[in-house]
Write a structure and sequence with these properties.
The chain folds into 2 domains: about 260 residues, Cytochrome Bc1 Complex, Chain C (Up-down Bundle), CATH 1.20.810; about 160 residues, no CATH class. The chain is about 65% helix and about 0% strand. The chain has 17 helices and 2 strands. The structure holds protoporphyrin IX containing FE. Protoporphyrin IX containing FE binds next to helix 3, helix 5, helix 6 and helix 9.
């Protein structure tokens, strides 16, 4: 056991690297959840059957007839949800401490791939119970893929193995979920760890680089052990109290109302309520992904500091930007929903312009105006400015997701959370 930990860590680390608020143990917790996913996934696999006629009943069998079946299913479900949330928080911490630049830029790109993989793992797993929730959530999500230009429809047909969900879709999702994606995830995680070691450990602020070296056992491993125990306790409590969802068996002739995409795609689904599909499903998500992949390669004014939010000025401008982005996104949603529907108002003009180019230009205009007049006042360096753009995108994305998950009800109309399900 001792040597397993020593393979994951160097023998000694800088004292300051062992402080909990450096990383909040988020990367380590993600690893633990992956292990949990693998173990519970293999256990479920003993009884699950990936055929439309049998899948739902096999899940019912696991729930009611297998010893601890419901609990294991819940553990698998909740560790998947937590994994996505923790990987997202880890991604935020890496960015907000500036650890995505210089010798860590390759690892940032591989980290983005890991995030994508975790989304795909959750997405492919979503269909497997073959209940109404799964069937219709995957139907709307793959419809979103169909909006991609040129190859969208073909890609949708390839993913579904036909024009709608069928036995081939379930078999393909099952194979990706249980074999290809986990294998890829393991390879990428190992590479990710190796890159952290290659970069000399985590990024530390300048003043702490000379901190004394201490043995990794027990200084770091003990803290990791406590975090691991706490995470397992939370996971157990959640799995004991809250069951993974399971509605009636999938019925292709009767759709749910509202039909919502899985929660991690709720932001994109919300965008579709306001923008032409070409912009909501393609231009905006692609621009965000290009921005995220591009930021490590920009030229910055100063080396990375390793300090949260770069500086006091960076923290203040990020706070102001998060508030502004949240308010403007909420305001935009309400305005478009109740007051000004560009597509109806400008009906003689093609929707691509009235509901695509026009609202996109308005959003970009708002962002540009904000950066020009408001952030100028902070006299930001280049890295603080990039941080503000990042914070803007993340805050808007979180608001869109929350509205999509909690405030959309029947016919996808805006409503209060207690009417949303
Ligand atoms: C399965 C998902 C992931 C796992 C298991 C994982 C694991 C880890 C671990 C254990 C560390 C060491 C320090 C820490 O705990 O923060 C780390 C560092 C790092 N991770 Fe991840 N990570 C994952 C996803 C990501 C994502 C989504 C990104 C960003 C897009 C990312 C980028 C990085 C970078 C750049 C570092 C170096 C940070 C530094 O030197 O301070 N990782 N990761």
């Amino acid at each position: 056991m001792h040597s397993i930990f020593l393979h994951l860590h160097p023998r000694q680390v800088k004292q300051s690297a062992t402080r909990f608020n450096r990383t909040f143990g988020l990367g380590g917790m993600a690893v633990l959840l992956i292990v949990c996913q693998l173990i519970t996934g293999v256990l479920l696999r003993f009884y699950y059957s990936p055929f439309p006629a049998e899948a739902y009943n096999s899940v019912l069998f696991i729930k009611h007839n297998v010893l601890f079946g419901q609990f294991v299913r819940n553990m698998h479900y909740w560790s998947g949800v937590f994994l996505l949330l923790l990987a997202f928080l880890h991604f935020l911490r890496v960015f907000l401490t500036g650890a995505f630049r210089d010798k860590r830029k390759t690892n940032w790109i591989f980290g983005l791939m890991l995030l994508l993989l975790i989304v795909l793992l959750n997405f492919t797993g979503y269909l497997l119970p073959w209940d109404q929730l799964a069937y219709w959530a995957i139907t709307v999500s793959t419809n979103i893929i169909g909006y991609l230009p040129i190859f969208g429809q073909s890609l949708r047909t390839i993913i579904l193995g036909g024009n709608e969900l069928n036995a081939d879709t379930l078999r393909a999702f099952f194979t990706f979920h249980t074999a290809l994606l986990p294998l890829l995830l393991l390879v990428l995680v190992v590479y990710h760890f190796w890159q952290v070691r290659k970069a000399g450990g985590i990024l530390l602020p300048d003043g702490e680089k000379e901190s004394e070296m201490v043995p990794v056992m027990p200084n770091l491993v003990f803290k990791e052990f406590i975090v691991a125990l706490a995470l397992i306790a939370v996971l157990f409590i959640f799995s004991a109290l809250f069951n993974a969802p399971l509605l009636q068996k999938a019925n292709p002739t009767f759709s749910l109302n509202p039909t919502k995409a899985p929660w991690y795609f709720a932001g994109v689904q919300e965008l579709l309520m306001h923008f032409h599909p070409f912009f909501a499903a393609f231009i905006i998500p692609t621009s965000v992904m290009v921005f995220l992949a591009w930021i490590p390669f920009l030229k910055y004014d100063n080396p990375p500091t390793g300090i949260w939010f770069i500086s006091e000025k960076g923290r203040k401008s990020s706070e102001a930007t998060a508030k502004f982005a949240s308010i403007i996104t909420l305001f935009g949603i309400l305005f478009n929903e109740y007051l000004l529907n560009f597509e109806l108002l400008l009906s003689p003009i093609p929707a691509f312009i009235s509901n695509g180019i026009l609202p996109t230009l308005i959003v970009v205009g708002f962002m540009a105006g904000y950066y020009k007049y408001y952030l100028k006042k902070f006299k930001l360096s280049k890295e603080e400015l990039v941080q503000a753009v990042f914070v803007f995108i993340i805050a808007a994305f979180i608001v869109l997701t929350l509205v999509g998950v909690f405030f959309r009800g029947k016919d996808m109309a805006l409503t209060f959370p207690w009417n949303a399900w």
